[in-house]
Amino acid sequence: MKTTSAENTIDYGWFRTHLLDDILPRWLSSSVTDNGLFIPHLGRRWNRLEKEYGTTVSQTRLLYNFSKGYELTGDEAYLKAVELGAGFLLERFWDAENGGWFHACNTDGEVLDPNKFSYGHTFVLFGFCHAFRVSGNRAFKNAALDT
Prior knowledge:
Layout: H1 12-31, E1 53-55, H2 56-73, H3 76-93, E2 104-106, E3 111-113, H4 118-135, H5 138-146
Antiparallel strand pairs: 1-2, 2-3
């Protein structure tokens, strides 16, 4: 029989505070580029490492995080990041010739890895659904439906 003890319970108040006051603001200030690529490669002090690229998975995980940040706080900076990041995903990761989502792009939008993975496509669906939910931008909904 499972028992509940102080060692195996989650302090949701602490978690929410840590998420909203520490984790999400740091991701927002450290990963978002001017053109909308989210740089996921950060050091222990939230400094960018010398890896100026992102993948479908990293881009869309942060789309989800920033969507949740907006939902929980109403802070327009999160919504702006969602719109910018989803726009970059649409413009740079999409293979307009053959369909599907390239695996990796750099900050200039150059495709670094043209391979396509179902795992990444699953995250694209997830990210665009959350981006549409908070922004109402039908292009994000359509991108999810076209995936």
